[in-house]
Prior knowledge:
With 414 residues, this protein is α/β, with parallel strands linked by helices. 29% of the residues lie in helices and 25% in strands. The radius of gyration is 21 Å and the shape is globular. The relative contact order is 0.19. Flavin-adenine dinucleotide binds at residues 38-44, 63-66, 70-73, 75-79, 206-207, 235-237, 239, 243, 258-260, 294, 337, 339, 363, 365-369, 414.
Amino acid sequence: MKRYSAFAVAREALRFHSGWERAWRSPAPKKKYDVIIIGAGGHGLATAYYLGRNFGIRNVAVIEKGWLGGGNTGRNTTIIRSNYLQDPSAAIYEKARGLYENLSQDLNYNIMFSPRGVMMLAQTQHEVRGYQRTAHANALQGVTTEFIGPQKVKELCPIMNIDGPRYPVLGALWQPRGGTARHDAVAWGYARACSDMGMDIIQKCEVTGVRQSGGKVVGVDTTKGAIDCDKLGVVVAGHSGVLADMAGFRLPIESVALQALVSEPIKPCMDVVVMANTVHGYMSQSDKGEMVIGGGADGYNNYTQRGSFHHVEETVRALVETFPIISRLKMLRWWGGIVDMTGDRSPILSKTPLENCFINCGWGTGGFKAIPGSGWGMAELMAKGHSPLTEGFSLDRFKEGRFIDESVAAGVAH
Ligand SMILES: Cc1cc2nc3c(=O)[nH]c(=O)nc-3n(C[C@H](O)[C@H](O)[C@H](O)COP(=O)(O)OP(=O)(O)OC[C@H]3O[C@@H](n4cnc5c(N)ncnc54)[C@H](O)[C@@H]3O)c2cc1C
């Protein structure tokens, strides 16, 4: 693979961009792989990448029923932060945030990581206490966050009305190195690096069955034929229950549509990310100038990758008190993704009852931020059978009552 560089851009400009290579190959599937990953979202691709990079396992296929990054990875609002409460969460999200810092260099692909700072508003006394507690927990975990007062909030985000009639801003949990990245570039960057290591990314190929023998996984059935493997990683977000059913076990997961919307582009007016849990909405400004606004999840289980009018209305109504300037904005488009929710709002990275079959799911409304850390831990789990990053997130915790309760950190979709 030819490296991307300023020199390469100049060279290609001179020859009318005729020399760029395809970013990744589109091979036909082989008969057998050491590892098959189902799902070419960020988590599946990152798992494949770190299997190759950290463990030298490169006879790997990533199988995707649509196009890579076409699931939640290409549909989210790209917020990256690691200000969670519990130790296992802080460890995996902070690992991910740290890897994001240098991911463009690591992958030789510009993922446009922008550590512009993320604030979670406290608009009730209950939230003030909750976020002060999280700031203390983060200090012990080595995660840099701070509880800031309303004046500092206003200084960081002047377009905000901190004296709102119903919910004045009482402070915020501020993570200065949180931010955003370009979501599809994360998927594309990992895909290109995987392809460069000789891995096969097979798109438009749906897994329709999981084959097993003697309690062990031996391969998958797909719309492009049967493919054998020694190990299988199921990384399919909102379809995890469907794949688990094929493999013969059940998951404590609910799938629901989560929605987001963007406005028409306007001049730069906001260079931080703001989340408002009480009124339920969050907002940042994209490089194009659009206000990227996150809404809520549907209140019932479904597999709909669509937006709906009532969510647009509810979300904008919620945010307009705190951000009066958006009342005059036109909303351009809205959409949905199918997210996979666990009861404790923490993910599952685990072995399964089927030997050599591993599962990575349950990231719910907030898994984009975790992609590099999740891939790192999942690759270690699949290669070595255990990983300190994934230990707390095993399926057993639901039987044993070892919940990792992150309902506050994940209280608003993000
Ligand atoms: C509107 C919205 C906003 C969000 N905002 C944020 C945010 O700001 N910050 C944040 O951290 N997170 C956010 N998230 C959550 C985040 O997007 C997800 O947690 C994350 O992208 C999940 O990645 P994934 O790789 O697990 O899943 P996906 O990207 O969904 O990838 C799974 C892939 O599996 C494929 N697949 C499914 N079934 C099969 C099959 N049978 N055979 C082959 N392939 C199959 C799918 O086609 C899909 O491409 C948001 C999500 C949504 C929907």
